[in-house]
Structure formats: structure tokens, C-alpha cells
Amino acid sequence: MNEKPFVLKGRGVVGGTAEGEALVFDISVQGNCAFDMETGRIVQQGHPLEGESIVGKILVMEGGRGSAGWSCRLHATVVSGVGPCAMVFPRMDSRTAAGTIVAGVPVVADLDRNPFDVIRTGDRVRVDGSKGLVEVLKRWRGGVSVLSGPQGASSRLILHPRFSGPPSLGKMAARGEWERAEVFDPGRFTSEDEVKRYLGRKEEIASEAFFGDAFFGARKRGTPEELLRFVLDFNRALASSESGPDFFRHVVERPGISVGSGFLFAEIGAVDAWKSVGPFRIEDLRAALEHFEELLNRLERSPVGRERAHAKAVEFAFDDGGCEHWIALPVSEGPLIVPSMLEDALRRWRESSERERLPVNSQNKKA
């Protein structure tokens, strides 16, 4: 079914028309440290979009911060062929105007609605700088681009630079026994016969896609036919995706996972030994951040905090009503937990949930 475009009306600042994927900057970039002029990637340390590419994207942003250096860097990316194809601003000021003039791509500003309330990263957008129109042509149904609804809770998580590349390997396990998981390269377990042999008489299966040491997983319970279709769809997404965003688009379409919908809790666990070591559960993430030192003290005394054989990760667990799934980021160097990595992951979740004004259902339990 074709979607009806959502149109925002504003003032055309630089003429021309461009169409592409939106990249939404909830936080502006800073002066001379904003963009890599050779690759078009965001290089500002600590920025939520650090590592993301602006090449061919439609940037939705407040403007630059600090000096006017960001406009020079932006111009350099365009000249080098690694810049954006258009830009959208809620309002125009002198620093923003300088950046738009030197960039020379279509620009619309002073819109009749706040673009941050309408456009999400991954949406297909057309900008007409001559007519002052911004059209949202197609929404990405994944975790970072649904206009309304709980999927936004995962936006900072799956936009992490660790998910920027293609999946590196897959895993499958039954009953949560990841110590006995089937580990395979993308491209395997994509034929019906191969998957049927693996599933046998299983009534439940979980699949994971790894992006280096970050990973995404989902669990399915059902009939043999339902499990077969789930595994095939998941593993075909694993095999065909050229990047993390591409993978998440695929799993939203098939097997139909509402990525980031229905937040449950977070857990810190030992990778490949989650069940045997035992995870450290965090029910209230906001309270955990407010009392982070206390959290660390309890974590250090827990089995996973004392374990010294496996890498550690924090999983954010969700249940969209049809499929349990989780998004995990590494929080250790080797087996030793690094507090700053854990704190960054928790803050990413909090920023996303507050951005979407989501309720946190800490009463839910993962089955």
C-alpha cells in the first residue's frame, strides 16, 4: 500500500529539489569537529550520531553550534562529494544561513510544523527549496523512524556506530542455552531443508545477529511452520543486509519485528554464558543512572561482575506482543566491565525514551 506523503510548508532558502533518506540531529554539531571532510562521517566525539554518514542524506537539524566552522566543514564535504543532498531547519539564523549558502544544496526553513515532531531518521524525504516544501514520502517502520508509538525507544541504541556495518555472524539457540548456540556466517541457514534439519522438534528458537561485539536478537514460540518461517526470514535478512540500518529495515518487514516496541528491562550478562553465569537485572534505568555508583557497587558483587572468562554486554529487552527481542551493546574490555561504556549505553536508552515520552513498564517480565 502506498503511503500518502506528509507535507510541511516553509520558506525556500536555497532552490532546487532533492530526495533521500533523512538523518535527524536531535543535538546540533559543534564547529570544526563536526564532519570528516574526506568520508562525510560525523566525527564529533560523544555526539549521538558519531560515526554516522551524511553522504547523500537530508539533514534535519537546528543548525551548528559554536563557531561558524561547521559551515566550512559542510561546504568541504559537498565539494568532496561526501556531503548531504539537502537540509531542513526549523528556523534560520545567521550561522545557519552561512552554512546553507556555502553548501549550495536545497534548503527549506521556517516550517509550519516542527520537523523534529514529524521526521525520523530513515524516513524517505523530498525537499523542494524552490517551493519551500518538505514531503515525508515513506516512513521507515523500524525503531528510529515511526512517527508515533513505542518503537522510538531504540533509536539511540540502533543508531550506535557499532551497528553501522553489516552483520558479521549469526547465532541460534533454544531454551536460552547460548553456551550451546549454533554459530554461523551470514548466508547459512537460508534454505528450508537446512533450517528444518536444525529445528527438528523444537517448539521455541532464538536468533541473534552480531555486529562485531554489539548484537540484536529475537525469540519465537509457535508451530514448526511458524518457527521455520521466522528463522528463514531472520537469517535471510542477516545474509542480504549491507549495513545495520539495512538489517533493521529487513527484520521489521519480515519476520515483522516491531523493533524497540514494548520495553521490559535491561540486563547485564556474560556473552555466550548468559544463562549459566546469570544476568544482572536493571528494572528502573532512570534510577540506575541517578544512582550509578550504587549500581556499580552492586554489579561488582554480582556473579556476572565477578566473572572473568567472558565479555560483558547490556541487553535492552522488548516485547511487542508477538516477538520478544533485545538490543545489546558491549560494556567491557575483555571480561572487565568498563563503567563509562555501561553509562553511555544507559544514557542512550534514556535519551530515546525521553525523546518519545515513553512509559517504562518495569512490571513486565521476560518469559
Question: How are the SSEs ordered, and which strands pair?
Answer:
Blueprint: E1 6-9, E2 11-14, E3 17-24, E4 58-60, H1 69-79, E5 86-88, H2 94-103, E6 107-109, E7 124-128, E8 133-138, H3 155-158, E9 169-173, E10 182-184, H4 192-199, E11 204-211, E12 214-221, H5 224-240, H6 244-253, E13 263-270, H7 274-277, E14 280-282, H8 285-290, H9 292-301, H10 303-306, E15 312-319, E16 324-330, E17 332-333, E18 336-337, H11 339-356
Structure, explained:
The longest helix has 18 residues, at 339-356. The relative contact order is 0.11. The chain has helices spanning 69-79, 94-103, 155-158, 192-199, 224-240, 244-253, 274-277, 285-290, 292-301, 303-306, 339-356; strands at residues 6-9, 11-14, 17-24, 58-60, 86-88, 107-109, 124-128, 133-138, 169-173, 182-184, 204-211, 214-221, 263-270, 280-282, 312-319, 324-330, 332-333, 336-337. It has 367 residues and is α+β, with helices and mostly antiparallel strands. It is built from eleven helices and 18 strands.
Summed up, what is this model?
This protein has helices spanning 69-79, 94-103, 155-158, 192-199, 224-240, 244-253, 274-277, 285-290, 292-301, 303-306, 339-356, and strands spanning 6-9, 11-14, 17-24, 58-60, 86-88, 107-109, 124-128, 133-138, 169-173, 182-184, 204-211, 214-221, 263-270, 280-282, 312-319, 324-330, 332-333, 336-337. With 367 residues, the protein is an alpha+beta fold. The protein has an 8-stranded mixed β-sheet with strand order 1-8-7-3-4-5-6-2, with helices on one face. An 8-stranded antiparallel β-sheet has the order 10-9-11-12-16-15-13-14. Strands 17-18 form a two-stranded antiparallel sheet.
